[in-house]
Amino acid sequence: MSLSKIRLNYRLRMTAIALVASLTLGSISAFSQDSARLADNAPDEYVVQVGDTLWDIAATFLKDPWYWPEIWYVNPQIENPHLIYPGDVLGLVYVEGAPRITTVRGSSYRLSPEARVTPLTEAITSISYDSVSAFLSRGVVIARDEVKSLPYLVATKGDHLIAAAGNLVYVRGTSAQPGERFNVVHIGDELRDPEDNDLIGYQGIEIGEGTIRAGGDPASMALISSKQEASQGDRLIPASVEIPLNFFPKAPSSNINGQIMAVVGGVTQIGQYQVVVMNRGSNHGLSVGDVLTVWQKGEKVRDRVEGGSVLLPDEPAGTVMVFKVYDRIGYGLVMEATQALHTLDYVRNPT
Fold first, then answer.
1. pLDDT tens per residue, range 122-173
2. CB within 8 A of 328, min separation 6: which ones?
3. DSSP-based three-state secondary structure for 301
4. For residue 272, which of 171, 127, 159, 142 has the smallest C-alpha distance?
5. Using one digit for the tens of pLDDT, what is the confidence trace for 227-253?
6. What is the Cα–Cα distance from 298 to 315, expressed in whole angstroms?
7. 136-238 in CATH: which number?
8. pTM
9. CATH architecture of 257-348
């Protein structure tokens, strides 16, 4: 078959998909072309690569990746239609003048739905696991109501007041079985809401890691690593924290207006792919996948012409995507940062 016929067949297939989409997406026909703007040089098709994230792919097609749900068309004829896999070919089609992205299994040269350019592996995630690994392995912030329910270190073998790697310690408050691993954290400074000074939680200072040797009350645990000495009262957090990484980036369904309270690692300036803690959670309508714009408050400067001072306008400085929420706390990954971000910067709905 000639290359021109292959391309013609591909166009016919994509046209057919567009017709199916137009019949099944009537409820979404109110799509706003002004809101979901295509990126400059957005491709007609894109082959998903190993290591891609949904954010990367969305940014390939859109200027604002959080509008992805508005243009994503779930093809009911393919297996796992809500997931995207390496080797999938994503095609850009138009339905009633509005752009849609849909999945075509295989490349433009192998058009059957069963064909794949690369072997099927795990579905791509919205953000990379490595980006949030610091959050997964550290206490970061412990919610106020969570502290009392966490297991704690009650004693060290040998009557030592402190313990380090290689020591055996005893813990209470857990039904963990031998082999289960925990991070040991020290309860640090209070974390208060910058708006009303209400206590939300505590900074968790990473001490080390341990493995349960024998269950019971108390249970025994061997410290296998330590960054500083563990002492009585330090808390245990499971070393494995479940984080849903398969979700669509989207604009919040509620009006969000909060602030960054802390950053993993304790740095003062925040850059791309760092994890931040915000004073907004599920109680405020925040949910996993929500994208927020970070705003920096305008400075007050002296007007040397008219005299007096003038307050400069707030300026957008970055983008954060939420990947974990509690009642009053949200964890977000900085996806973009046009300048260094700081604690107390504002987070609001994207515009």
1. 788 888 877 776 665 555 678 888 888 999 999 998 877 788 888 999 999 9
2. 143, 193, 200, 279, 280, 281, 283, 284
3. strand
4. 127
5. 889 999 999 988 766 677 788 899 999
6. 7
7. 2.40.10
8. 0.74
9. Beta Barrel (2.40)
